[in-house]
């Protein structure tokens, strides 16, 4: 899922020049992928609740590979290459919808209690590791020809496909799926009881990904235009803030356990770091200081995301977990989809205005976390029934 967007970031300027595209058109290669994923994630999440996680993941990975091949051959051989690339990206987006979001639900199925938080931290770190490595991989493949990235997707996906087929073992057997009405009533009850804090956590996750991909899009553009940094070096520079996010995600996931008060504090700290650093970035032109502050804001993302994952994954029982976590992944994809085109418009408007807008957005999320998620001390006691969904209190 992560490779599907991040590997393209370094080659977007070359694609723009080769196909004579506008900044908005080139951003759509990220956006259509993410919108397709956002639409299909809840559908595939529902199907994974009714059947099995693995049965959804395998064809999704195959479709992701086919979409990459179509984009690659479209760029290399077909007329109207841009149209074929977009069609392939849509297919990839649909395939991506059945990967990471289902994997998060599967993690919730297989692990409980503090171990679940630790593994979800590894999950978020692996997601981030993909973000760290993919700009470097994208830049390396881009040295051959800019559309070589599309042919790299199937090779990497085959590895993941084989691992899923042979190493993922779902525990036990699924009961007969409930009637749709009963399933829908259970979901409505979840959102009636837990809806307010779920909305805040969904929004927080979406904002994290919106700012992350938007800034990567912005950074990729200015590295070439303003600082004349290209190729592998550009990929390495793009990977620096992501590396800080990955490391922080891993450490956070291993330390939070099921301490809900600590999760809330870390979410507040993470968004505060983002808010402060985005405000300073509005006034900074020096590249080294810019990357340093961006790394600090990425630490904030790394503090927040594992906590958000644990809160959402533990909020419901196994029978509804696929849909609830998939809806969260859908919101994340919407954040990714919105990032590049909105940043493209803001870049044309004002660099300072761009970062001040981000400052206001992350400040709003910080206040929502403070006032709408209220965790009581009893929530931090170990749950005797490890299969029981976690409960949170809210105002």
TrEMBL record:
The chain crosses the membrane at residues 26-48, 55-78, 84-107, 146-168, 197-219, 231-253, 265-284, 290-311, 323-343, 349-373. It is a multi-pass membrane protein. PANTHER family: CHLORAMPHENICOL EFFLUX PUMP RV0191, PURINE EFFLUX PUMP PBUE. It is found in: Cell membrane. GO terms for molecular function: transmembrane transporter activity. Keywords: Cell membrane, Membrane, Transmembrane, Transmembrane helix, Transport. This is MFS transporter. PROSITE patterns: MFS. Its main location: membrane. Residues 1-377 form the Major facilitator superfamily (MFS) profile domain. One of its GO terms (cellular component) is plasma membrane. InterPro entries: MFS, MFS_dom, MFS_Efflux_Transporters, MFS_trans_sf, Tet-R_TetA/multi-R_MdtG-like.
